[in-house]
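Example 196, ligand FE2/S2 (inorganic) cluster.
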Amino acid sequence: MAMREQLSKRWRKGRPGELRRPDDGADLSLLDSALQDLPRNEMSVIPALQRAQEVYGYLPESVLAQIADELRVPWARVYGVVTFYAQFRVAPPGRHLIRVCQGTACHVGGGARIREYLRAYLGIKEGQTTPDSEFTLDTVRCVGGCAVGPCMVVDGNTYGRLTEFRVAAILERYRGACSHPTRDTEANHDAHDPQR
Ligand code: FES
């Protein structure tokens, strides 16, 4: 389901002014330190959402409402930003987060081809999660491995010199693993040396 539909179903149930705070069980106290140094105005909406996504892994509706209240901006403004930018997620991510680099150096080295392969291999687009909740796909601008592009990052581990075959082999090692493969696997060596 599209993000706009996911949010709007509940957020737009009532008329303006009648929106009720969603109760999705998110621990809102975690927001206190994330927001504490941000000015209380509209300019802080994007950094607040980025920090909240770091904390929760996605943006539960109660967190969006709390950010709007804390920054003293309309809920609709926060809603608009979240639905406009692909970097924001309103559903929990999969067990493994894949970020494929689309920076200039990786693009020249075939980054777009790798992104297309990931889309086809996983059956999802950027910002989406596979139906089995195993993988979430995102893009990133540069991960510091320009010399060995195209690159992707899986659960914080960087892989370079990607080919379609190599992408499939790497992801199969993650499939079913609770976090990243164990320390002695090839995948872990890749993480420390993306040139492999
Ligand atoms: S552009 Fe992809 S790692 Fe720098």
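Summary: The chain has two domains: 3-84, 96-192.
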